[in-house]
Design a protein that fits this description.
By secondary structure, the chain is mainly α. 83% of the residues lie in helices and 0% in strands. The relative contact order is 0.14.
Length: 229
């Protein structure tokens, strides 16, 4: 009888230890399942936000590329007009010089009245240098510092503006690509989390979830620090 009682007590202790171990294992499994659920929830929100930001930045990039193209066209139009103005200035000056040399003062005055206002200012400054007697005088008014061409200045301003638009478009496209990279990381997190649920052994399951969590933290850090559209 004492031996039978001892066997019963031993069996009872083994049963209680098994129940305690199973309970502890179940609790650990519940905790890891909660972590997995939390990771999946964060991944869902973060993926949606990253995709939204990527599409917004791509749209802004395309808009700035279009503005750059449009501004470049306007700059080229202004440059063409500047070239036409310069050709007109040279042609009328050559005609004035020929009339002046020929002693046709009336004809020279006629051409002088047809100088563009911008050119007329440079022409007056050039005449003050006595160019017909001064060998060091510039060859013509277009070589004077006073010579201005509003169309040429406008062309340069628009070209610089187009450059800024283009650089902004490139920068915005790169930002959109960064958000796309985040979605790739989040997809990896999703894959690892789903894979961890297939493991029956607790250790490997925790290791896979830990890697997924680290990638999730990195992705979240990038999302919080990247510019927002």
């Amino acid at each position: 009888m004492p031996e039978a009682t001892s066997n019963v007590e031993f069996a009872q202790k083994i049963h209680e230890h098994g129940e305690h171990h199973a309970l502890r294992t179940d609790r650990r499994a519940q905790w890891i399942e909660m972590v997995e659920a939390l990771v999946l929830a964060i991944v869902a929100v973060a993926t949606a936000w990253s995709g939204y930001q990527a599409s917004k930045w791509d749209a802004l990039s395309a808009q700035h590329y279009n503005l750059a193209s449009r501004t470049t066209v306007l700059s080229q139009e202004a440059a063409t007009l500047a070239g036409q103005d310069r050709l007109y200035d040279i042609t009328t000056f050559d005609a004035w010089a020929a009339a002046r040399v020929a002693g046709q003062d009336k004809l020279a005055a006629f051409y002088e009245r047809r100088f563009r206002p911008e050119y007329a200012a440079a022409f007056s400054a050039w005449l003050k240098l006595d160019p017909f007697n001064n060998p060091v005088a510039p060859a013509g008014p277009i070589f004077m510092a006073e010579y201005k061409n509003a169309s040429s200045q406008e062309s340069a301003r628009l070209a610089e503006k187009a450059k800024v638009y283009f650089e902004n478009g490139v920068s915005m496209r790169e930002t959109g690509d960064q958000y796309v990279k985040i979605t790739v990381f989040l997809a990896t997190v999703l894959l690892l989390t789903a894979l961890s649920q297939r493991f029956q052994i607790f250790g490997p399951r925790v290791a896979v979830v830990a890697v997924a969590f680290v990638l999730l933290v990195m992705s979240t850090y990038w999302i919080l620090n990247f510019p927002r559209a």
